[in-house]
Design brief:
Zn(2+) binds at residues 60, 64, 171, 179. The chain is of the alpha/beta class. The protein has 8 helices and 5 strands. The protein has one domain: Glucose-6-phosphate isomerase like protein, domain 1 (Rossmann fold). It has helices at 3-20, 26-41, 53-66, 85-94, 100-108, 125-136, 150-153, 167-188; strands at residues 46-50, 78-80, 114-119, 140-145, 158-161. Bound molecules: D-altro-hept-2-ulose 7-phosphate and zinc ion.
Length: 191
Protein backbone atom coordinates (compact mmCIF):
# COMPACT_ATOMS: atom_id res chain seq x y z
CA UNK A 1 0.00 0.00 0.00
CA UNK A 2 1.30 3.51 -0.78
CA UNK A 3 2.03 5.90 2.07
CA UNK A 4 -0.99 7.97 1.10
CA UNK A 5 -3.25 4.91 0.93
CA UNK A 6 -2.09 3.89 4.41
CA UNK A 7 -2.88 7.36 5.75
CA UNK A 8 -6.26 7.35 4.04
CA UNK A 9 -7.16 3.96 5.49
CA UNK A 10 -6.02 5.08 8.96
CA UNK A 11 -8.18 8.20 8.75
CA UNK A 12 -11.22 6.33 7.44
CA UNK A 13 -10.87 3.72 10.19
CA UNK A 14 -10.57 6.40 12.89
CA UNK A 15 -13.48 8.36 11.42
CA UNK A 16 -15.74 5.28 11.25
CA UNK A 17 -14.77 4.20 14.74
CA UNK A 18 -15.76 7.65 16.04
CA UNK A 19 -19.00 7.77 14.03
CA UNK A 20 -20.00 4.35 15.36
CA UNK A 21 -19.68 5.62 18.91
CA UNK A 22 -22.07 8.53 18.24
CA UNK A 23 -25.14 6.42 19.02
CA UNK A 24 -25.02 7.73 22.58
CA UNK A 25 -25.41 11.29 21.22
CA UNK A 26 -28.82 10.70 19.62
CA UNK A 27 -30.82 12.10 22.54
CA UNK A 28 -28.78 15.26 22.93
CA UNK A 29 -28.78 15.92 19.19
CA UNK A 30 -32.55 15.51 19.11
CA UNK A 31 -32.85 18.02 21.97
CA UNK A 32 -30.61 20.45 20.06
CA UNK A 33 -32.75 20.01 16.95
CA UNK A 34 -35.89 20.84 18.96
CA UNK A 35 -34.16 23.87 20.51
CA UNK A 36 -33.20 25.25 17.07
CA UNK A 37 -36.74 24.79 15.74
CA UNK A 38 -38.36 26.32 18.85
CA UNK A 39 -36.08 29.37 18.69
CA UNK A 40 -36.48 29.88 14.94
CA UNK A 41 -40.29 29.49 15.10
CA UNK A 42 -40.30 32.20 17.79
CA UNK A 43 -38.36 34.55 15.50
CA UNK A 44 -35.10 34.06 17.38
CA UNK A 45 -31.77 33.16 15.82
CA UNK A 46 -28.97 30.63 16.04
CA UNK A 47 -25.49 32.07 16.68
CA UNK A 48 -22.34 30.03 15.98
CA UNK A 49 -18.65 30.48 16.79
CA UNK A 50 -15.40 28.50 16.95
CA UNK A 51 -11.73 28.68 15.95
CA UNK A 52 -9.97 27.46 12.80
CA UNK A 53 -11.82 24.56 11.22
CA UNK A 54 -14.64 25.15 13.70
CA UNK A 55 -14.90 28.76 12.50
CA UNK A 56 -15.47 27.29 9.04
CA UNK A 57 -18.12 24.96 10.51
CA UNK A 58 -19.78 27.93 12.22
CA UNK A 59 -20.00 29.80 8.92
CA UNK A 60 -21.07 26.70 7.04
CA UNK A 61 -23.99 25.97 9.36
CA UNK A 62 -25.11 29.61 9.54
CA UNK A 63 -25.17 29.66 5.73
CA UNK A 64 -27.29 26.50 5.60
CA UNK A 65 -29.92 28.18 7.79
CA UNK A 66 -29.91 31.66 6.23
CA UNK A 67 -29.84 30.38 2.64
CA UNK A 68 -30.79 26.71 2.27
CA UNK A 69 -29.60 23.19 2.98
CA UNK A 70 -31.57 21.01 0.57
CA UNK A 71 -34.97 22.57 -0.05
CA UNK A 72 -36.35 26.02 -0.77
CA UNK A 73 -38.03 27.61 2.24
CA UNK A 74 -38.06 30.92 4.05
CA UNK A 75 -34.85 32.45 5.35
CA UNK A 76 -33.93 31.47 8.91
CA UNK A 77 -32.03 33.67 11.35
CA UNK A 78 -28.44 32.55 11.90
CA UNK A 79 -25.06 34.21 12.14
CA UNK A 80 -21.44 33.14 12.63
CA UNK A 81 -19.32 35.40 14.87
CA UNK A 82 -16.20 34.51 12.89
CA UNK A 83 -16.62 36.58 9.76
CA UNK A 84 -16.32 40.30 10.45
CA UNK A 85 -12.60 41.02 10.20
CA UNK A 86 -13.00 44.55 11.52
CA UNK A 87 -14.67 43.33 14.69
CA UNK A 88 -12.27 40.38 15.04
CA UNK A 89 -9.15 42.53 14.61
CA UNK A 90 -10.36 45.54 16.60
CA UNK A 91 -11.43 43.44 19.54
CA UNK A 92 -8.32 41.25 19.52
CA UNK A 93 -6.08 44.31 19.18
CA UNK A 94 -7.81 46.45 21.79
CA UNK A 95 -9.01 43.88 24.36
CA UNK A 96 -7.57 40.46 23.44
CA UNK A 97 -8.62 37.34 21.57
CA UNK A 98 -10.05 35.62 24.64
CA UNK A 99 -13.22 37.72 24.66
CA UNK A 100 -13.68 38.07 20.90
CA UNK A 101 -16.83 35.90 20.87
CA UNK A 102 -18.13 37.01 24.28
CA UNK A 103 -18.15 40.63 23.11
CA UNK A 104 -20.18 39.79 20.03
CA UNK A 105 -22.58 37.64 22.05
CA UNK A 106 -23.08 40.61 24.39
CA UNK A 107 -23.76 42.84 21.39
CA UNK A 108 -26.03 40.55 19.39
CA UNK A 109 -27.58 37.75 21.44
CA UNK A 110 -31.14 38.15 22.72
CA UNK A 111 -32.86 35.97 25.33
CA UNK A 112 -34.20 32.87 23.59
CA UNK A 113 -31.56 32.83 20.87
CA UNK A 114 -29.58 29.60 20.61
CA UNK A 115 -25.81 30.04 20.90
CA UNK A 116 -23.59 27.22 19.60
CA UNK A 117 -19.93 27.24 20.70
CA UNK A 118 -17.71 24.78 18.83
CA UNK A 119 -14.36 23.58 20.21
CA UNK A 120 -12.77 20.24 19.44
CA UNK A 121 -10.38 20.46 22.41
CA UNK A 122 -13.18 21.86 24.55
CA UNK A 123 -10.62 24.14 26.19
CA UNK A 124 -10.42 27.18 23.92
CA UNK A 125 -10.78 30.16 26.23
CA UNK A 126 -12.61 32.36 23.76
CA UNK A 127 -15.23 29.65 23.17
CA UNK A 128 -15.70 29.11 26.91
CA UNK A 129 -16.02 32.89 27.45
CA UNK A 130 -18.54 33.09 24.59
CA UNK A 131 -20.66 30.33 26.14
CA UNK A 132 -20.51 32.08 29.51
CA UNK A 133 -21.71 35.34 27.92
CA UNK A 134 -24.52 33.42 26.22
CA UNK A 135 -25.69 32.07 29.59
CA UNK A 136 -25.65 35.57 31.02
CA UNK A 137 -27.68 36.83 28.05
CA UNK A 138 -30.48 34.31 28.65
CA UNK A 139 -29.75 32.24 25.55
CA UNK A 140 -30.14 28.51 25.06
CA UNK A 141 -26.53 27.36 25.23
CA UNK A 142 -25.20 24.51 23.07
CA UNK A 143 -21.65 23.15 22.97
CA UNK A 144 -20.09 21.01 20.24
CA UNK A 145 -16.82 19.51 21.50
CA UNK A 146 -14.50 16.54 21.36
CA UNK A 147 -14.26 14.15 24.26
CA UNK A 148 -12.61 16.61 26.64
CA UNK A 149 -15.51 19.03 26.54
CA UNK A 150 -16.33 19.23 30.24
CA UNK A 151 -15.61 22.97 30.64
CA UNK A 152 -17.91 23.82 27.73
CA UNK A 153 -20.53 21.24 28.73
CA UNK A 154 -20.71 22.74 32.22
CA UNK A 155 -21.97 25.98 30.65
CA UNK A 156 -24.33 24.33 28.18
CA UNK A 157 -28.00 23.36 28.25
CA UNK A 158 -27.18 20.79 25.55
CA UNK A 159 -23.66 19.38 25.12
CA UNK A 160 -22.80 17.38 21.99
CA UNK A 161 -19.55 15.69 22.93
CA UNK A 162 -17.89 13.62 20.18
CA UNK A 163 -16.07 10.69 21.82
CA UNK A 164 -12.65 11.41 20.32
CA UNK A 165 -9.67 13.60 21.31
CA UNK A 166 -8.65 13.89 17.64
CA UNK A 167 -9.51 17.33 16.23
CA UNK A 168 -10.23 16.08 12.71
CA UNK A 169 -12.64 13.35 13.79
CA UNK A 170 -14.46 15.73 16.13
CA UNK A 171 -14.75 18.30 13.32
CA UNK A 172 -16.08 15.70 10.89
CA UNK A 173 -18.69 14.54 13.41
CA UNK A 174 -19.66 18.14 14.21
CA UNK A 175 -20.35 18.91 10.57
CA UNK A 176 -22.17 15.61 10.01
CA UNK A 177 -24.48 16.26 12.96
CA UNK A 178 -24.85 19.90 11.90
CA UNK A 179 -26.15 18.76 8.53
CA UNK A 180 -28.72 16.48 10.16
CA UNK A 181 -29.82 19.36 12.40
CA UNK A 182 -30.28 21.53 9.30
CA UNK A 183 -32.27 18.78 7.59
CA UNK A 184 -34.57 18.54 10.64
CA UNK A 185 -35.00 22.32 10.80
CA UNK A 186 -35.82 22.52 7.09
CA UNK A 187 -38.47 19.83 7.47
CA UNK A 188 -40.06 21.96 10.21
CA UNK A 189 -40.18 24.99 7.88
CA UNK A 190 -41.33 23.19 4.74
CA UNK A 191 -43.88 25.42 2.91
O1 LIG B 1 -8.91 22.61 11.46
C1 LIG B 1 -7.97 22.50 12.22
C2 LIG B 1 -7.37 21.18 12.44
O2 LIG B 1 -8.06 20.18 11.71
C3 LIG B 1 -7.42 23.67 12.97
O3 LIG B 1 -7.57 24.86 12.20
C4 LIG B 1 -8.13 23.85 14.31
O4 LIG B 1 -9.48 24.13 14.10
C5 LIG B 1 -7.46 24.99 15.11
O5 LIG B 1 -6.21 24.54 15.57
C6 LIG B 1 -8.30 25.49 16.30
O6 LIG B 1 -7.66 26.60 16.88
C7 LIG B 1 -8.56 24.42 17.36
O7 LIG B 1 -9.43 24.98 18.35
P1 LIG B 1 -10.41 24.07 19.19
O8 LIG B 1 -11.25 23.26 18.23
O9 LIG B 1 -9.58 23.20 20.07
O10 LIG B 1 -11.26 25.04 20.00
ZN1 LIG C 1 -9.23 20.91 9.96
Amino acid sequence: MSEFATMLKGHIDGHLDTIKRLDDCGAVLSAIADAWVTALKAGKKVIFFGNGGSAADAQHLAAELVVRYRINRRALGAIALTTDTSILTAHSNDYGFETVFARQVEALAQPGDVVVGISTSGTSKNVIAGLKAARESGCVVVSFTGQNGADCAALADHAYCVPSPITAYAQECHLMAGHVLCEFVEAAFRD
